[in-house]
Design a protein that fits this description.
The complex is a heterodimer of chains A (336) and B (531). Chain A has 336 residues and is an alpha/beta fold. Chain A has eight helices and 19 strands. Helices cover 23% and strands 25% of the residues of chain A. The longest helix of chain A has 17 residues. Helices cover 35% and strands 24% of the residues of chain B. Classes of the chains: A alpha/beta (336), B alpha+beta (531). At the A-B interface, helix 6 and helix 8 of A face helix 5, helix 6 and helix 18 of B. The complex binds zinc ion (2 copies).
Chain lengths: 336, 531
């Protein structure tokens, strides 16, 4: 086997390294900087150049080697390269080749080009280890332009009513994707600290984001009438929100496709926007690899592998320690 | 249907009552009359008969979506709603339809007249011509489960604003035995004709649980009676006919044939409010709720059951007297009318006057309340002697002062995901007590915890699942919950031999190890005392 599934995570015996391990190991190849993929405590890390700044920001002093997309590195008897996954800036699928057999670990990915992250590229392989966070036919994403129009319309309506617009989104990826798509001429854009820190890291690596104002304890919300405020889902529930009395609230997440979840978050609005592939996206991506063996992980694994088996694939499940957790959007800060 | 979908979306996008009322009022100002009438019908629980089974809908949806049925079924519990699941899995609509809400509803209403092939074509055409929200609503109209977070009361308030008719007047006009096929918006809503429908009930006045006895002031201003555990009912005698309504605004006249004799004793133009109870005529006292339960849900009643569990109305108020609406007269005046009406009927009639309790001070009353459980009563009702009969749930004049629930500490052993709003949380749990070193399940409960607690237990269940049986998971016995309930009765159908009334989780006993949970013997002792 090119890759094996061990207690610590996905392992390559030919190169003696792990991919996105969840326990401390000597050598870790990391698909992207989200907390459920890039963990503390590895001796050495390898990631893309574009993922590195965020990883350093989140993990502090680590021994991190970087590689450009598409560049082949030899590790032991394995040939390794990173390819865009379209999930967040710097996110990668990891291709591992041993003795002519190619396996690809998808990490988190989406197939639509969000105009901000490096666009997803299918990588031909024999075996494909794919996430399936939204691996049910009930998930079908609204086109990005339509969601952007919805957000603008909501913002404009709130401005007309003299209210703030507080939009909850994950601090890494989703928040910046939204920022990059906003019409900044509509009014001031304020940000929660966790988002602003990530903005700073991404701006420093040359990504273009509109100007934002960091909300600090000294910020007087009244100075920014009609503002759109980007907040973390955590920040929205807490006392931080008190400085924006009467605000209209919204969340941007793939889970917002479900009315039950939308209502449970008890925000005024839910915008359907995900950095993961929807049902169509997953199926298209899998076909595009040409792989016959598919391993599914992260999400509706048993349903999705049964479906793939019926479609003629040799499909299996990779158990992770965090299976199913993403069912509960209250915890999705860690699973994006 | 577009306007109705827009209304639904605005209602769905806010949790604020004022915004909901404003959106509804706006709709009532602009929608055509027949759509308005249907909207009133839907929001007051009047729906067309279901003409297509959900089994067929599932099959058609899976077929149209190009997925196997099992995959559709896997989506359903995660989405938490059948209509929504269908709307989500289908491919985007290829056509556009300008049909109105009323048009769609007449299609839905007429399903019963067609064979399956025609129905299927109509449903597929609808799915293919409606955008997401309208498609979801169409499915809701077929399955009859449309709930849009607006009570009848809010709807009435919005309508009152839109057409400038008083809310209480409208509330009364909307009640009764009508469907959009038997009336028009003009006749039902805009025309003032009190005799239009002899069966029309008044909105029920609902009491809150008492919070603060001291705030009630002088005991002399209050009247008290025992609160019996039955079915809240309104008995109407008009035009030599009688009509019986349940609190859920369901006409249940046919289920309780014993009331047919009431017009022989009670004059026309009388409306009673009271509790329907199963009655022991020998002892002249109520039977347990258990006896009445056999009558609930039965559309026809076998003779034997009529004998075993005869029903009476335990009347505590009169809303219409000598053909006049007397709801604005003081409670004590209405009680005078009530005693006079009931005082003259024979003992064999299915009517009893709710006895008021004598008390000089609150302590006497509290002592009486403590005897409730022994009498099979739920507690007390307190009513202000000067109060009018209000509509809906209002604080101030009527209070229920129930006895504290019974409680038992139990171990959680199974968990099941909720539905709808809670589809992604584990909310339904099975609890067990010790029998020796075995845990015996005895109750299911699904309410009583906060959302935060539900999230916490959900995360725990995911990590501590032992086995899966379809949607049910057995979990590691580790958590103890205090289960509160209103009553206990023996039940040979249950493994524990008991069944509880209204069990709910009243407290998460983080402080208790499972070894300290209660035992089956404790439950049996409770059954002995309160069963
Ligand atoms: Zn991620
Ligand atoms: Zn992830």
């Amino acid at each position: 086997m090119v890759l094996e599934f061990r207690r610590q995570g996905i392992y390559c015996p030919a190169g003696d390294f792990f991919i996105d391990p969840w326990r401390p190991v000597d050598r870790a190849l990391i698909t992207h900087g989200h907390a459920d993929h890039a963990r503390d405590g590895m001796k050495r890390y390898l990631a893309t150049e574009a993922a590195a700044p965020v990883m350093r920001h989140r993990l502090g002093q680590i021994d991190l080697e970087t590689t450009p997309y598409g560049h082949e590195t030899r590790i032991g008897d394995a040939k390794v390269s990173f390819h865009p996954a379209g999930h967040v800036p710097g996110s990668a699928q990891i291709r591992v080749e041993v003795a002519g057999e190619v396996w690809v670990v998808s990490g988190d990915y989406k197939t639509v080009d969000d105009g901000f992250s490096e666009a997803f590229e299918p990588v031909p392989c024999h075996a494909f280890i794919t996430e399936c966070t939204f691996g049910l036919p009930a998930f079908s994403w609204t086109p990005q332009q339509q969601v952007t129009d919805e957000i603008h319309a909501w913002w404009a309506k709130n401005q007309a009513e003299g209210r703030f617009s507080v939009l909850g989104a994950y601090a890494l990826g989703k928040a910046q994707r939204i920022l990059a798509s906003l019409d900044a001429s509509m009014g001031p854009i304020l940000t929660h600290g966790a988002i602003e820190n990530t903005n700073a890291v991404l701006r420093a690596q040359g990504l273009s984001l509109p100007d934002t104002i960091h909300v600090t304890p000294d910020t007087n919300a009244k100075d920014y009438p009609g503002a759109l405020v980007l907040a973390t889902p955590g920040g929205m529930g807490g006392p931080w929100m008190r400085r924006f009395p009467g605000a209209s609230t919204a969340f941007a997440s793939g889970w917002m496709a479900l009315r039950g979840v939308r209502r449970r978050r008890s925000a005024d609005r839910g915008f359907v926007m995900s950095d993961h592939a929807d049902w169509e996206g997953l199926n298209t991506a899998i076909k595009a690899t040409g792989a016959e063996r598919i391993f599914v992980t992260h999400g509706y694994t048993s349903v999705f592998s049964r479906w793939l088996t019926e479609q003629g694939f040799d499909a299996g499940i990779v158990e992770t320690e965090f299976e199913g957790e993403n069912l509960d959007p209250a915890a999705d800060e860690v699973v994006e | 249907m577009k306007a109705f979908a827009t209304l639904f979306t605005s209602l769905d996008q806010t949790t604020k009552t004022n915004a909901k009322v404003a959106a509804l009022a706006q709709y009532f100002r602009t929608a055509p009359d027949d759509d308005k009438l249907w909207t009133i019908a839907l929001l007051s629980g009047r729906r067309p008969k279901r003409g297509v089974t959900t089994t067929l809908l599932r099959e058609w949806a899976a077929e149209r979506a190009g997925i196997p049925l099992w995959l559709f079924e896997e989506c359903y519990p995660i989405v938490g709603d059948l209509s929504e699941t269908i709307a989500l899995v289908l491919p985007p609509a290829q056509q556009q339809s300008e049909r109105s809400l009323t048009d769609w509803l007449s299609i839905v209403r007429d399903f019963g007249k067609h064979d399956v092939a025609v129905k299927k074509q109509q449903v597929l055409d609808a799915w293919d011509s409606l955008p997401a929200v309208e498609r979801f609503l169409f499915n809701k109209l077929i399955t009859g489960g449309l709930r849009i977070g607006v009570s009848q009361k809010l709807m009435t308030r919005a309508l009152a604003q839109a057409i400038e008719v008083e809310e209480a007047t409208l509330a009364h006009r909307i009640m009764g035995d009508w469907t959009p096929d038997t009336t028009t918006f003009e006749d039902l809503i805009l025309t003032d004709d009190p005799t239009a429908d002899a069966s029309k009930p008044y909105p029920f006045y609902l009491a809150y649980q008492l919070e603060d006895l001291d705030a009630l002031g002088d005991p002399k201003d209050w009247s008290a009676e025992f609160k019996w555990d039955g079915i809240r009912g309104q008995l109407i005698i008009r035009d030599d006919q009688h009509f019986l309504w349940s609190r859920g605004e369901e006409l249940i006249t046919d289920r309780f044939p014993e009331f047919a004799q009431v017009p022989d004793f009670i004059e026309n133009g009388t409306v009673f409010d009271g509790e329907i109870l199963a009655w022991d005529f020998d002892q002249d006292s109520p039977l347990t709720f258990n006896a009445l339960q056999k009558r609930i849900g039965r559309k026809t009643v076998p003779k034997k059951l009529l004998k075993e569990a005869p029903a009476i109305l335990y009347a505590y108020d009169v809303l219409e007297y000598q053909g006049q609406d007397v709801r604005n007269q003081p409670y004590q005046t209405r009680r005078t009318y009530l005693s006079e009406l009931i005082g003259s009927v024979p003992d064999t009639a299915p009517l009893r006057l709710s006895a008021t309790l004598e008390f000089e001070d609150w302590q006497t009353l509290a002592d009486l309340r403590d005897t409730s459980r022994d009498r099979n009563a739920e507690g007390l009702m307190l009513k202000n002697a000067q109060s009018p009969y209000l509509a809906g749930r209002k604080k101030g004049d009527w209070w229920k002062w129930k006895v504290d629930p019974l409680t038992i500490d139990a171990v959680m052993i199974y968990a099941q995901a909720g539905s709808g709003r809670r589809a992604n949380l584990f909310t339904d749990f099975t609890f067990a007590v010790w029998n020796g070193n075995q845990l015996v399940p005895f109750a299911k409960a699904y309410s009583g915890l906060t959302d935060a607690e539900f999230r916490k237990i959900t995360a725990w269940v995911r990590k501590n699942t032992q086995e899966r049986f379809g949607p049910v998971r057995s979990v590691k016995p580790q958590h103890v919950f205090e289960i509160a309930f209103e009553g206990i009765q023996s039940s040979p159908r249950h493994k524990s031999g008991v069944a509880l009334r209204f069990p709910r989780m009243s407290r998460w006993r983080h402080d208790k190890p499972i070894s300290e949970a209660n035992t089956l013997d404790d439950l049996k002792a409770m059954l002995e005392t309160y069963g």
